[in-house]
Amino acid sequence: MKSKISKILLIFIIAAAVTAVIIWINDFEKTELVSTDGRTFERAVVTKITRDNLAEDGNRYGDQQLEMQIKSGNLKGEIISGTSPNGMLFGAACKVGSNVIVIISQSGDNLTATVYSLDRTVPIILFFILFLAAMLWVGGKKGLMSAVCLFAALALIFLVFFPLVYRGFSPFFAASIICVITTVFTIFSVSGVNIKSVCACAGTIFGVIASGVFAKLFGIIAGISGYNVSEIESLLFVGQNTRADVGGLLFAGILISSLGAVMDVGMSIASTINEIHEKNPLLSSRELFSSGMNVGRDMMGTMSNTLILAFAGGSATTLFLNYAYDLQLIQLLNSFDIGIEIMRGISGSLGIILTVPFTSFITSKMLKSSFIAAKKHKS
Known about the structure:
By secondary structure, this protein is α+β, with helices and mostly antiparallel strands. The protein has two domains: 39-119, CATH 2.40.50; 141-378, no CATH class. The chain contains ten helices and five strands, in the order H-E-E-E-E-E-H-H-H-H-H-H-H-H-H. Strands 3-2-1-4-5 form a five-stranded antiparallel sheet, with no helix packed on it. Helix 6 runs parallel beside helix 10 (336-378) and helix 7 runs antiparallel to helix 10. The protein starts with a helix and ends with a helix. The mean pLDDT is 88.
């Protein structure tokens, strides 16, 4: 009973400390980059189409004119007139009963309402519920903990990483902190506190930092920096008006994006060696290391493919445009967009590759040392 009370008390103290740190990190005022006075985004439902933009050929031209009943905010319950632009990124093809997000701009007695998009809140929530249900069905309690760890990692990115960068901390340093906390919390929550988990944490952290270091080296040698990304103009505006080092976000992102794959490899290697050791404690550390390397060699190819294909898939539109315009290979290889994707894929894969021997080595050594120490203690 005392042990349970101590654990609960420890969890409460840690939770209180983490909450206090997060509150402190977020205790600042953001610089207003764009004036949003008098503008709000509200939910609404379309009650009437006063003028449609559907032509006889089946295409839409111009804007829709419609009436909407506001479902949130100060104008909740009121019916107002507005427009829905015919755009690919903004607006929507509305019909009576459509749930939409509307931009309401007020200046004195003047009010304008423009449809921003369809209201996707319900589908998003349903897919989150489906995701959680699948995790629980397949993984049980561990699946639930995995989902909790995932949401905790996302919370760390938005509540710790972004605020730290905004306040002027090094993005690479801030990303390293996030990766360490996420790794320790995830692995210890799923597998408990033991030698296997400690080794998996150490291997993951080593592999992620190695990915970042290789990305930095690649960037220096190839002349690629965080100022060569496609969103640089918007980022420079933010950097000029805040203390954020926007140029470091590229390499910080590589750390975070490679974390999942590297953690998977680190945990798998440590778990495999631990299982082999429990089945046959008499195996030497060299034999355990060899077993870990054999498993790791099988994993390296598939996990590297996963990482590189994920980056390639994320850049599918850019790659297709390059293909469609039939650009020369020498032009593609020396463009910043392709260079950055190559840097991301290769540096992340190198982190995975180096995680295998590092995790195999420390796991085999620590398990064997613990076994020998326990044997001496018994004797």
